[in-house]
Here is the input.
Amino acid sequence: MTPVGEKTAATLAVNRKARHDYHIVERIEAGIELRGTEVKSMRAGQTSLAGGFARAREGEIFLYNVTVPAYEHGNRFNHEPDRPRRLLLHRREIVRLGAQIEQKGCVLVPLALVLRRGRVKVELGLCRGKRLDDRRETLRRRTAERETEREIAGRARGRAGG
Here is the structure.
């Protein structure tokens, strides 16, 4: 929840594929350790979350396969585009998420990158993979809902004109 008077977050990148490929069990917001040129590149809207995942390693959680292209106005201190990035979470959260990943067969997937109060945050999803028939069922349900909405809108327009 956002406190009264606080500005809403600006979305820097969204992983649409994650919502298609996974059942999202839980959402977690975490800070992310970045270099200065990475923040500038993210603000320019060049980040790709597709194929990204997070994994617990040595008591910390790292984000892998998230591409942040080199900042075009950067200098020799520019960052590596595909480097692993450390996520900033409380120790209890790290332990809990690490246990859930190992026991339940879940995976941590980045859902979105947001800018809150000048800080880049990553919205992670504790996800369970969808099977092919689950994906088809989701598509069927979405299509049926869309057709129902069109039908309702069409009838509403028909009554208004007649």
About this structure: The chain is about 35% helix and 30% strand. The chain has two domains: 10-130, 131-162. The beta strands are 10-14, 22-32, 53-57, 60-64, 85-88, 107-116, 119-129. The radius of gyration is 20 Å.
